[in-house]
Design a protein that fits this description.
Blueprint (H helix, E strand, L loop, with lengths): L1 E10 L2 E11 L4 E5 L6 H8 L7 E6 L2 E2 L4 H6 L1 E4 L11 H11 L4 H14 L15 H13 L5 E5 L7 H18 L2 E6 L10 E6 L2 E6 L1 H8 L4 H9 L2
Helix pairs in contact: 3-4, 7-8
Amino acid sequence: MLSIRGLTKRYGERTALDALSLEIGAGSFCVLLGPNGAGKSTLFQLVTGLFAADAGEIIVGGHSLKREPSAALRSLGVVFQQASLDLDLSIRRNLLFQADLQGLPRALAEQRIRDDCARLSIDADLGRKVRELSGGNRRKIELVRASLHRPPLLLMDEATVGLDPKSRRDLLGTLQADVRELGVSVLWATHWVEEAEQADRVLVLHKGKLLADGTREEVTSALGEPTLEAGFISKTSH
């Protein structure tokens, strides 16, 4: 679903991503684990076309972001670290606005909004303004919004920042269910090691380079410590 080849991005003298290459297959839950400043958000900004890379290639769903940007971006849904909902609009109006941007017929959009919000237990609040909702429910709305056009790849950038433990667990559980039941691929960026515990694959990013890539057990072994947390701290603390 996602192929990144030799991706490089610099900000003046600082290299945020250094010839990064990785592949994300279909129907997998992948955690991109890295400390603050590792390059996770920069990677997402490049994949979503917000920034241009200095070098390298990005292919999403078989489409080159450089040569076929519209087709590539249609394969993506994204939840950024910073909330981007209109707080003074209701849940329904926020979601219908996104559906209109995606060109969804109104009847289909209404059906998906009802179904997806019911699945996340927020359907009773469709008429409420977003500012009246908890942080956990706001994140649920952003997930529904990102999925309205049924993209095969979801990017989640530090999506649990500010959430309580239950909301964090519920959001992770929802995405893992989507991977199992719908075949969606998820790339979840985080600096929380515990969020990598149930991942199909863990990619450790530090200073713009991959330090390790594989299952949780393989990455723990590659980092050379008895636990993933110990290895992550040891290899990314300098």
